[in-house]
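FORM 7B: Structural annotation worksheet

SECTION A. Query
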Amino acid sequence: MRKIPMLFLIVLSSISLIGCNKSNNSANNKEISIASSAELSTADVSLAMDNKSAEVAEQVNEGLYNFNNKGQLEPALAKGMPKVSNNGTMYTIDLKTNGKWSNGKPVTAEDFVYGWQRTVNPKTKSQQAYYLDGVENYKDISEGKLSPKTLGIKSLGKYKIQINLDHPIPYFPSILAMSASFPLYKPYVESQGKKYGTDSKHTLYNGPFVLQGWDGTNDTWSYVKNKNYRDSKSVYLNKINVSVVKSQDTGVYQFQSKELSLVPISGPEVKNQKNSKDLYVRKVPGTSYLQYNTRKKLFSNENIRQSLSLSINFEQLTNKVLQDKSIPATGFVPTGFKNSQNQDDFAKQAGNLNKYNPKKAKELWNKGLNELGIKTAQFTILSSNDDRSKKVDEYLQSQLESNLPNLKVSIKSVPFNNRLTSAKSGNFDAVLSGWTPTYSDPTDFLNLLNSNNSNNDGKWNDSQYDQLLNAANIENANNPEKRWEYLQAANKYVSQKAPITPLYYLSEVYLINPHLKGVVMGPMGFPYYKNAYWK
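SECTION B. Predicted structure
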């Protein structure tokens, strides 16, 4: 098989902790309770775009491949790694024959064909569909020119699929491990219609667990062992109870009182727990950023956007405000992506593109106001109502108002799902957002700002930027050195045009009971519980 990925990223790690304290472990150590920092928005794998939905999708579904604890692809429902031919544009994959849905029906090649066709269908309105860009006919399907049935995936028998690409895609194998490429059982999905994925009762599963107790709006749910899962012998926990805990104090109290076995924490609480044997810290190749709605008059001006980026002291934000081991962002693409040709880290090679310069900020601000014909300005930052976001909101408000004259910044903190809805509908001025990788390539970040990307919530439209991405991803797909150069140029261009302000590179910090073993941290930072057990 021809090895085509140009980049690699080791992003997973197994949790192996030691200690002697006990935590909740009812039903003969087969049931645990954990905390979530955000509510669930959907159980539909075609729509699972945010981190929480993706996390849940990974617990209760299974695709062709998984990432192992070294960050490498390994077969899940696939028998082995894909056979790649036709100059990197044809993938042939044999499936295991023991995959089953939670209703007992077999998982077949047709389930992958239907799942992909449903995801790219414009009627589905999947924000994940663009991950399949480059699969044959995707572009014409997304524009309504061709039927989803013409997508370049087909079954070659009950347990074999063939995927045809328009051009080689260096990172495509990683796409085969994410929820956008998961299978769907057509008879069930179509019988549920619009109800599919809206709650746990109207969803079908083929993973280690099934989802129970989620009515579509509540803040609690459970992962229950799937008796029909093909590898159920490797699933040790019978039930994992999940509850949304937005307050740091509440989460820590419930952990210390042994109500919860795993709790995400942030801010000063990380510092407070620095000597705890239960503390688990992991650097995540993800970026938190402020995104501007460029359809708004104020943010249509490049000087205004640049002035905002130059007004924020990123080191003070991470060291004094967050205090959770996050580090200042030096650009949009975070550290952790390495060039397999020479092992250069993408972000480190780019250097610091994200600087604090209040004097220059004021000059550009005044210039931008003059260009817009206004003397004062105001806007609102939209964000989630969790502890970390509130701290960042307050800091940004203070920094921007103190460094830029005649500016008024307001804050609108809403529940996580409300923020997602408002951002996607364009109902915001600026939104506090973030991104963690779903595959091991800088384009996972850079593609977000492509003019036609469904996740380009700020609607920044720049033909020169699009051309840089096209040069990297299509014209030089088989030329690693040139491709890297164009990706770096695109990364630098983002900093110059400032459609977003990168704020900090993420860390994920948890309190984890040392008796909870076998948890694997995935590429987006969240835990996988398939092989978790209590010891």
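SECTION C. Observations
The chain has a mean pLDDT of 90. The chain has two domains: 7-244+513-534, 283-507.

SECTION D. Sign-off
Analyst initials: ____
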